[in-house]
Write a structure and sequence with these properties.
GIY-YIG endonuclease, 7-stranded parallel β-sheet, 25 helices, 6 domains, 6-stranded parallel β-sheet, 33% helix, globular, alpha/beta
């Protein structure tokens, strides 16, 4: 009886969550398992596509002529049963297609075009070594296919005698180093030395080195570094038959230049001990409990994480630790590598494609038991998970903006149920949704109410910038902040300044006619960047020169309006020339390793002031910071988003927590034009609980989360009428199935209606219980595929982080 493989295929124009049935050729029957990628024929014309095997059965309901799997793409599964089940759940909850979810779980190196090789990793019988490998250590996958020896190689894979190496064309290749192996015995070296006599001093050195080497092997780089021998000397010795060269794969190590100081566990204080005890109890009882660890900034949450993970490793289990941004990763890596050494693998977008692939393989092979990384590391192929930790759980960057639009917290909770392990959600300012779940005992609330060093939280002073204007101070810096910056510099203490807007100025405007330079592709003005002397669009990336005359009236009164980090740096240097400044924003951190380089420089005291956007607001722990300045606390308050106040409160609280974390007392200056706003007043008092109560009251009045669930549906097209018409059709399709209390807002154009020459329309659905909504939306997605193939985009975002 022919085995049937159920395959989720990758067909971009007509995707489906329904697997297709394919016959399994007899030569693949013993080797094929769930989770492997295969190459299959699809449609007419002999077209071949990639797919994932999600099941193997022995019967099919398909009545047509069954097609057969053309090729295997793996010798072993790249996704285990857990990941395949998670892919189904993600497809259901994120309104993405299953193939997209499965591909998201793999490193990009495995999603791109690649070359594969099969390498020997153990001894095999001599006849197989020569018949299969032709006496070489590895062969290409293509050669194995052509010679029809894949089934034999798969048998060897089952006993871990061979492994598959993925090498990506033009992206990443397995890193190799050239090794040297002596071909001479001790006695043969003696004979060669005697034959040389006093001739050939270099050859004598080389022979003596080979004699000392014995059975050992050394890299060419090491030999050249520790002896006077050159590559030419080694090549000549190879010709003489004294030695042989071969290639050996090595991991790319993103931290090879770094030495991590080993650290010991601290003795936990009473609050930390009270927090960790129920976590360890849940872990030892294999209980999938979710803990919300609410701890003020500097309360020692990281030490709780570290000691929880230490216990996890003691139990022989693995741990996942997520941080929201790359900027947080360097310091977290220091903490974790310092405590757990080589057991730690790091996954984030700051690594090269090859480094990420090598870190993923270390995890997949079980060589790393602790994974630290950003959002996508939630899919790391760790097994036997003992704890999952999400630091700064309130951060919006844990939600992916593109399909599949998953939230890392939701994936963590799912994996927690699968592995029967606890989840820790840590934050000084938990999201309202998480705090509300804790109030309803869905999560277990644990609190750290004071700093670990017993120091008081920093004093926060609010400066009303309207008063500064009355004093004729038109600077971005209040007189009080200027004075305090000078004072800290004189004391050789450090300062953090936050402005949540990059660039030089928000826009340029002609004073004669009011013309504002727009992006040609988007309905938004261009931002001035003085470092590149260009105007840039932060939506589509369009770039053009700075205008010196008005393109509209040809006038010369072009002026810059608004303030960005570049302009602040320039102004600060003018006001306080003695200040040395490090600027940290998207523009200064583009290059690989830039985050770490800038933070290390600041930590070493190479600058007085760290000026940056929100990436500097959290996680940073430098003992010499005694002053934090927020230059404009109102940046987010004016946005038409129901989370604007929550984000402002969180940002102010987080950045305030950078001050006074060691022995020195900290102080915070918050500049604002809205000094009476509750988010700013309560952030001044470090009063999360009253903020939570006030904000929950407003959310209840406005019918917003966490009182309602939300869905955001978006359409886009190059022609505005097409996007608008489709959105109208969607609302008419959904509305009849909805209950009377469900709220439908729209359709309306998005706040920025045109981006990259596409027009966007949206509808927001707010609901409490809608059993028909998800099936209806999946039906909509499937019915829209033909239009989507012709350029119409429809996206469905469950629990969006932004409505604008």
């Amino acid at each position: 009886m022919v085995s049937i493989a159920k395959v989720i295929v990758d067909v971009p124009t007509m995707q489906t969550n329904q697997p297709y049935d394919y016959g399994v050729p007899s030569e693949f029957e013993k080797q094929l398992t769930r989770g492997m990628r295969v190459e299959v024929p699809f449609g007419k014309g002999g077209r071949r596509v990639q797919g994932f095997v999600v099941a193997i059965v022995h019967s099919t309901d398909y009545t047509g002529e069954l097609k057969y799997i053309a090729n295997l793409m793996d010798l072993n599964p790249v996704l285990n049963d857990e990941m395949l089940a998670l892919g189904q759940e993600m497809a259901r909850t994120t309104f993405a297609f299953q193939i997209t979810c499965l591909q998201t779980m793999l490193p990009s190196v495995m999603r791109a075009k690649y070359e594969k090789k099969i390498r020997l990793i153990d001894e095999i019988p001599e006849e197989l070594f020569f018949s299969l490998f032709k006496g070489q250590a590895e062969i290409s996958w293509i050669e194995a296919e052509e010679r029809e020896i894949l089934p034999q190689l798969m048998e060897l894979k089952k006993t871990d005698m061979v492994e598959v190496i993925y090498e990506v064309r033009n992206q990443a290749r397995a890193k190799k180093q050239r090794m040297v192996k002596s071909l001479l015995s001790f006695q043969q070296v003696e004979e060669e030395l005697n034959a040389l006599g006093k001739r050939g001093p270099k050859q004598q050195v080389l022979l003596s080195y080979l004699q000392s080497l014995g059975e050992e092997v050394k890299s060419v780089a090491e030999i050249k570094a520790t002896t006077s021998l050159t590559a030419a000397n080694l090549k000549e010795a190879e010709v003489k038959g004294w030695l042989a060269f071969y290639e050996e794969e090595i991991y790319r190590d993103p931290f090879k230049e770094r030495e991590f100081k080993q650290t010991e566990a601290f003795i936990l204080n009473a609050s930390q001990q009270a927090a960790i005890t129920p976590i360890l109890a849940a872990m030892s009882e294999n209980r999938a409990e979710t803990f919300l660890l609410k701890g003020v900034t500097g309360s020692g949450k990281t030490e709780v994480y570290l000691q929880t993970i230490a216990e996890t490793l003691q139990q022989g289990k693995s741990a996942l630790m997520l941080v929201p941004e790359i900027a947080l990763t360097p310091q977290m890596v220091n903490h974790f590598k310092g405590r757990f050494g080589d057991e730690v693998a790091v996954l984030h977008s700051g690594l090269s494609v090859g480094e990420k692939y090598d870190e993923w393989r270390k995890i997949e092979r079980g060589e790393a038991k602790v994974v630290v990384g950003a959002r996508s590391s939630i899919f790391a192929p760790v097994t036997n998970i003992g704890v999952i930790i999400i630091d700064e759980e309130h951060e919006g960057s844990y939600k992916q903006d593109e399909s599949p639009r998953y939230h890392a917290r939701d994936i963590a909770l799912w994996r927690s149920q699968f592995h029967h392990c606890p989840v820790i959600l840590g934050s000084a300012t938990p999201s309202l949704e998480s705090r509300a779940r804790a109030q309803k005992n869905v999560y277990t609330l644990l609190e750290l109410t004071e700093r670990a060093n017993k120091k008081a939280l920093p004093e926060v002073e609010i400066i009303d910038m309207r008063d500064e204007l009355k004093l004729q101070n038109r600077s971005s810096f209040s007189l009080v902040l200027q004075e305090k910056i000078r004072d800290r510099i004189a004391k050789r203490e450090q300062i953090v300044l936050l402005l949540n807007r990059r660039g030089y100025s928000s826009f340029v405007m002609c004073r004669d006619c009011g013309f504002v330079l727009p992006c040609p592709n988007c309905d938004i003005s261009l931002t001035l960047h003085m470092d590149t002397k260009t105007m840039k669009c932060h939506y589509c990336g369009h770039e053009e020169g700075i205008p010196h005359t008005c393109p509209s009236c040809k006038g010369h009164k072009i002026r810059y309006y608004g303030t960005g980090t570049q302009k602040i740096e320039e102004e600060l240097q003018s006001l306080i020339p003695e200040a040395s400044i490090i600027r940290m924003d998207v523009d200064t951190t583009r290059k690989k390793g830039a985050h770490e380089k800038l933070l290390t420089a600041f930590g070493n005291g190479e600058a007085d002031i760290l000026l940056g956007t929100q990436m500097i607001a959290k996680g940073l722990d430098f003992p010499n910071i005694t002053l934090v300045g927020v230059l404009n606390a109102d940046t987010a308050l004016g946005l038409p988003d129901f989370r604007a106040s929550e984000r402002t409160f969180q940002l102010l609280t987080q950045v305030s927590g950078r001050a006074g974390r060691a022995e020195l007392t900290g102080e915070v200056i918050v500049q604002t034009y809205n000094p009476e706003h509750y988010a700013i007043v309560l952030a001044q008092k470090h009063d999360y609980d009253h903020f939570y109560q006030h904000e929950m009251m407003l959310r209840h009045r406005g019918s917003y989360p966490p009182y309602y669930y939300t869905i955001l549906i978006t359409t886009s097209h190059e022609e505005e009428v097409v996007a608008a018409k489709k959105m109208q059709e969607i609302v008419q399709f959904i509305r009849p199935e909805m209950q009377p209390e469900t709220i439908i807002l729209g359709p309306t154009p998005k706040a920025v209606a045109r981006v990259n020459n596409r027009y966007y329309y949206q509808t927001i659905i707010k609901y409490k219980q809608e059993p028909q909504l998800f099936p209806k939306l999946h039906e909509l997605l499937n019915n829209s595929q033909r239009e989507m193939a012709r350029g119409l985009h429809v996206s469905i975002d469950s629990e969006p982080m932004h409505f604008i």
